[in-house]
Design brief:
alpha/beta; FAD/NAD(P)-binding domain; Alpha-Beta Plaits; 7-stranded mixed β-sheet; 13 helices; 19 strands; binds flavin-adenine dinucleotide
């Protein structure tokens, strides 16, 4: 049985960044991913056949130059692969027409509320309470709650205001928002391919146990031991894995609910599509949270649109009919389609108190918990949590 300094379970952005740090520290590191590919919610779909060379994003679509903990792991070659996203507007769809975001603002109540932006602390408030207060209830109900649901790919009212749009330093030498050639999955591929760690796909970890040398990790007939263990899986999966050995942590993790989103992407020939160029669409009282467009990385032949639907509402055929109606094209114009269901944590106001409790339970342990259920759901938030947990393990090693 091979012994490692560090085993990381889960090969999304959280696990990949944690494993990178372990390898760079000189730790003998193993990364285990259940799926057949690395990336998790970095899920660019690359088409073949008639749409060969075209891609759309089925989950994360935009990264920013404020994602410092992620960017610092890329070398010169990696940073050189970042591709600027073209500027295009977000529009709003209320079931009748596409409008600009500004047209949905309720200016008479918004303007007098604006000074409150400077003085109202976000800490402990939900998005509904904070933005309802500082932007006015009518702008919140008519626009912002839908815009936030589009950003978070789930109902957003109760989400913690202090976890969205946290101020972070920007890397001014890099594009403000970017993707990669072939989509954001390129980030996962780059991180997984960097030398210094072993990385295996198709390994679903079933069980972990504490042993004299640290931890033993079980997957089918395979077993590995390690001194340090990082769980980079969704909260509910971490709860399951920790149930036997860390019941208090598992109990806390079970408090995080999952929000599902059903994403369906379509590829349409550019010619004959009247829809103006846009970055995306926010659904107002619709059965989808958002539509994310490929127009920000234009292609000579095709346009691509990923609709992020609320779960359990429609069959695939019904979704295609909804998409065709918004794009104003017949379904047979769709050259190809791709789909994925993702699950994100549904965080609630006051979440940072929960994080403190979990961190207290982790203190002194050689176990790290990372993921999108600590500092926020963005790729940058995940990388930041990985960095913080990695630093904690380093401190306890010295
Ligand atoms: C529709 C959508 C749009 C988004 N848009 C953006 C965006 O534009 N910008 C942005 O910054 N963020 C965006 N996000 C959020 C961001 O993509 C995710 O929060 C982030 O990628 C999560 O990374 P993670 O590594 O923590 O988890 P995941 O990506 O969920 O990875 C966890 C991994 O663990 C693996 N795993 C689970 N159980 C086991 C096991 N037992 N053994 C081994 N492996 C296991 C899974 O297969 C998975 O690969 C979006 C998310 C969604 C769903």
């Amino acid at each position: 049985m091979t012994h490692y300094d560090l085993i990381v379970i889960g090969g999304g952005v959280s696990g990949l960044t944690f494993a990178r740090r372990g390898a760079a520290q000189g730790w003998h590191t193993l990364l285990l991913e259940a799926d057949g590919r690395f990336g998790g919610c970095l899920a660019s779909h690359r088409y073949g056949g008639a749409a060969e060379g075209f891609w759309t994003e089925l989950a994360a679509h935009t990264a920013y130059n404020s994602y410092g903990a992620l960017l610092e792991l890329l070398d010169e070659t990696g940073l050189g692969r970042l591709q600027t996203r073209r500027k295009a507007p977000w529009r709003v769809w209320d079931g009748k027409c596409l409008q600009s975001v500004f047209a949905r603002m309720h200016w008479p109540s918004l303007l007098p509320s604006l000074p409150k932006l400077l003085f109202t602390p976000k800490l402990g408030l939900s998005l509904r309470d904070y933005y309802g207060r500082v932007m006015g209830r009518r702008t919140y109900d008519g626009l912002l709650r839908h815009a936030f649901s589009a950003v978070l790919a789930q109902p957003a009212d109760d989400f913690p205001a202090d976890l969205l749009f946290r101020k972070k330093p920007r890397r001014k030498d890099l594009p403000r928002s970017y993707t990669l050639k072939g989509g954001l999955s390129g980030l996962a591929e780059m991180l997984a391919a960097m030398p210094g760690h072993e990385a295996k796909t198709g390994i679903a970890v079933e069980r972990i146990e504490r042993v004299a040398e640290g931890f033993r990790v079980h997957a089918g007939q395979d077993q590995w031991t390690c001194r340090r263990l990082a769980l980079a899986v969704p909260a509910w999966e971490a709860a399951r894995l920790l149930d036997g050995e860390f019941p208090d942590l598992s109990h806390h993790l079970k408090q995080i609910a999952a929000a599902e989103v059903e994403s369906l992407a379509v590829v349409v020939p550019k010619e004959g599509l009247a829809l103006p160029e846009l970055a995306g669409v926010i659904g107002i009282d619709q059965d989808f949270y958002s539509v994310v467009s490929r127009d920000v990385v234009p292609d000579a032949r095709f346009r691509g649109f990923t609709f992020h639907f609320q779960p359990g509402r429609f069959s695939r055929e019904e979704k295609l009919a909804r998409i065709a109606s918004l794009l104003e094209v017949p379904i047979d114009r769709f050259v190809q389609t791709a789909e994925r269901t993702s699950r994100l944590p549904s965080l609630k106001a006051g979440h940072l108190a929960w994080v403190s409790e979990v961190d207290l339970l982790l203190s002194g342990e050689q176990l790290a918990l990372v993921g999108n259920y600590f500092y926020g759901v963005s790729l940058g938030d995940c990388a930041e949590r990985s960095k913080a947990e990695f630093d904690r393990l380093c401190r306890s090693a010295s």
